[in-house]
Amino acid sequence: MKIEIDKKSGIPLYLQIKHEIKKLLESGDWRVDEQLPTERDLAERLEVSRNTVSMAYKELVLENIIQSIPGKGTFPNPKTIPYVEPKENDNLAKLEEIIEVTIKEALELDFELEELKRIVNQKIEEKEKLIKNINVAFIECNYEQLYFFSKGIELGTSVSIVPILIDEIYQNPEGFKEKLKTIDLVVTTFFHFEEVKRCLTEQRQKVLPIALDPLMETMVTLARLSSEDKKIGLVCLTARFAQRVFQSIKKTGVKHQSFEFSTSHHQDELEKFLRGLDIVIASPGRKEEVERLISPGVPLIEFIYVPDKGSLNMLKLAVLDLKKEGER
Hints:
single chain; alpha/beta; Arc Repressor Mutant, subunit A; Rossmann fold; 4 domains; globular
């Protein structure tokens, strides 16, 4: 399998290797029964240290993308790979083929096309009534992730996402319990999974943990623009989000002279904070506000965390199971 890395990009090599392997698995170019190269073989092929490949493999194992089988080697995780979505064009072609066959058979049975259209529309209406509206609660500790998850994740027209700040559980327990009465599925990050589970011991809802990673394009852009003499500033809503961004930048090895953040909404304070910065980062929802205040030529990057592919697929499957229950 062809894995390409760019040693001059500034992106840590282990992250590039991890991203390349995930891309191959998601595209279906790597079969579920096809063994991955050993750490030594891949390190020699890419001319990197074995430790670099080992770090990439360990993160993929933690995300359940691959699994290590003692005595056999490392393979794609069959519990994850089957959930890779077919390409949209392939699905459309299959659907069109089914429709063509249906029309042909209806004509052979002496149905008029208008009558076929009426029957199909009737069946669609019946199915829409059967499909249950699903309410998914997303519980997180910072407003930024709640904002993006509730606005940026598409799970279908019959699915509503209810954002819940984790502080609500403790500050307003009765209101939290009341809100949960309409919830079918609770989603949170692995970091808060055990905490949320303990709070829901008396509830019926399943708690699904997901992994959130920085958008790869965000990290690539940041690494390309940054260097040891650059000052990076973040405008966000909470100190928690700022700490998380700082850890992500640190983990991926993005070089910088300094990292500061501001949660202020006062224009004068923001303008003062933004002066002298070489790169400005904005949390979801604050990009337009910051864009009006930064100096011309200063790059502005919106820092977004998104569910990784495996987590998103598991979430869609959980929603699908709930819909099927509603059809029974």
